[in-house]
Amino acid sequence: MAKASSYQKSESNGVTTFTVTPADAPKFIFGLIMGGFFGLLGLMMMPVGIIVVAAAGALIWFSLADQRPKEHRAVTSFRVSPERVEIGGQSFSRDDVHRVIIRNGVTGKEVLEHYTTSASAAAGMAHRAHMARVANALTLESGGRATFLAGGMDEVTAYGLLRDVCKVLGFKVD
């Protein structure tokens, strides 16, 4: 079973530290099956099948790799007080923050808008949608720039973190 995203918060001297653990990335099952099939096919065609075995190995590697942006794969910590947000040596005054939002690192808001009759294309699209479910990030916007706070979260964790950060900053949460 894949690990779900989570966050912990701790308070000390009026400053809340949030530590976000990203979810495990989903595996591309269709790619694993096809890679295994073509790997066996390539082994039966040896020595010419070495090219097929190499391609199958690449497909299996691609199917197991975490394809989310790099920052969505690592544990992240940041500090929030009623006056400011601090992350990675940067500090943002509460009054300078335009908004704190959830942004998806893969797609924005995942909606399956494309239709296909190809089973392999549909499998790829389904994998992308599955990957997007654990690629939500909390982003702070200030001074016309977006700053990544934490990522690799499912929707429940992202909304919980958004609510807790906004409560500390004194922002209204709907």
Descriptive account of the structure:
A hairpin with a 2-residue loop joins strand 4 and strand 5 (90-93). A 5-stranded antiparallel sheet has the order 1-2-3-4-5, covered by helices on one side. The chain has a 3-stranded antiparallel sheet with strand order 6-7-8, with helices on one face. The chain is built from 4 helices and 8 strands. The protein is of the alpha+beta class. Helix content is 34%, strand content 29%. The protein folds into 2 domains: 6-24 and 71-169, no CATH class; 26-65.
Spatial arrangement of strands, main beta sheet: 1-2-3-4-5
The pLDDT mean sits at 81
Q: Give the low-confidence spans.
A: 110-116
**β-sheet strand percentage:** 25-35%
Offer a concise description of the structure.
This protein is α+β, with helices and mostly antiparallel strands and 174 residues long. 34% of the residues lie in helices and 29% in strands.
